[in-house]
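Structure tokens please, single chain.
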Amino acid sequence: MAKLKYLVWALTALLMLSCQEEEETIIQDNAESFTTASPLVGLLSRTAQNPTATDNVLDNSSCFSVQLPVTVIVNNQQITVSSAADYQTVQDAIDAFSDDDDLVNFIYPITIQYQNFQTQVLQNANDLDDVLDDCGDDDGFDEIDCIALVYPIVVDVYDSNNQLANTVTITGNSSLYNFLNNLSNNVYVAINFPISAVNANGQTIIITSNAQLENFIEDSIDDCDDNSNGGGSGGATLVQSMTSGTWYISYAVHENDVETSYYNGYNFTFNPNETILAQRNANTINGDWDISDDSGSLRLSLNFDGSLLEHLETNWRVIEFNATTIRLKKETSDGTDYLTFTKN
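Here you go.
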């Protein structure tokens, strides 16, 4: 399978031989290149980011972490937090009484670090309130921090707008997170495989493709976060989420083609009796759903009347979910299908 840069070099050679200006078509290697919309980007970003959820008992936000050591006051008890092990001490102080305010008050100044590894010094509680206001809502999917990528990682980058190609060497988590966070929609990225990674058991493995890398990170979600509501647990919780409110499709890929726009305007209602209503304008499509456990992996089966929603009709693997998002995936002989429901 040709590398992206080889395709660009080949195109350049053709242009040099041509005597006339012609409209050229760049053929992308869809199997091993990806863009910022790819699920792999989100998984890699969460693997590379500065861990910001582990200290939520202190700041109640996954937007940033508080650098240690730090001193806090909880219910008139002063606690010095020197390591992650001290988070439990703070939690115990919060849980000690049922009739208190459970507020964690910092002794300032404190230094916070964002997901992109940038730091900021906060002088008082007003500074903290300002940061929290700017952070917005968490998406509920935290860092995947019990695995590690082995650097350096070399990637080929192709800008389809400017028809420019170059090679970037990623040297660490900060470098990878910020590289992915700054990708434009028109940029295609291809990792130079093989690469190495360390799994949750401390074992080094070799990864040779996007699909293998994606599966490796997805399979690690439950290992990294016991409360992740990953695909291997939480069937009852998934039902509670699904049957509350209405949903729309925020991401859909079928046989490597992005089909999200096809579902614009559809609202889905998952009823407790395992029926579905898919409504767009005055049109309603009936269907049914079922959740099963396949060797520890949650499966969501969808069926609809007629053929308008036939690409949704399969037995999806539940990658992860929370109260507002359900991420599904299906491996097929023609590629990998993706489906993401987001609550209205």
